[in-house]
TrEMBL record:
This is GAF domain-containing protein. It comes from Ramlibacter pinisoli. Residues 26-178 form the GAF domain. InterPro entries: GAF, GAF-like_dom_sf.
Amino acid sequence: MHANDRTAERDHVVAAAVQRAESLLDRGAPLREVLSQLTGAVETLSNGTTVASILALDREGLLRNGASPSLPADYLDQIDRLRPDPAVGTCAAAAATGRIVLTPDFHADEKWRELRHLPLAIGFRGAWSMPLKDEAGRVVGTFGTYFRESRQPTGQEVEDVTALAPVAARAISRHARRV
C-alpha cells in the first residue's frame, strides 16, 4: 500500500471513530460505549500491536476505567481508583501533570516501581498517556496506549490520539454533569 493510501486510510478510521462517538454521545449512549469507539480506533490503526485505555476522573478525583476493552478485568481492578500522582505510572502522572507522559520501558521508569509487575504480567513493555482536558483546560481523564515492546509512540500515533482526545474529554465532561 502506498504511503498516501495509508494516510488516507488512517484519516478515515479516525474520522469515522469521531463521528460514531459523537453520534453516540448526542444520543445519550453510556460513556463506555462512546469511549470504546475511540479506543477501538487506536487498536485498529495499530493492527493489534497496541492496546488503548481511557481512564476518567471521578467526583473524588480518582482514575476509573472509562473504556479499556482489550485489557483484562483483573488488571483494571488493580489500577482502579488510582490517584493522579506525577510519580506514579503513566496515566496517573499524565492526570497529575496535565502533560503527555512517555514510558518507553516499564523496567527503566521509576514511576512504575510499585506497579510495573502488572503490565509486564500481561505482556506489555511500555506505554504513553495523554491527559484529556475539558473546555476550561481541566484534566478529566487520560488516554493511554500500551505497547508489547519497549518504545515510544510514533508521531502518527500521537496525531491519532490527539484527534480522538477532544471527543473523549467532551464525553467524560458531559457524563460527569449528568451523574
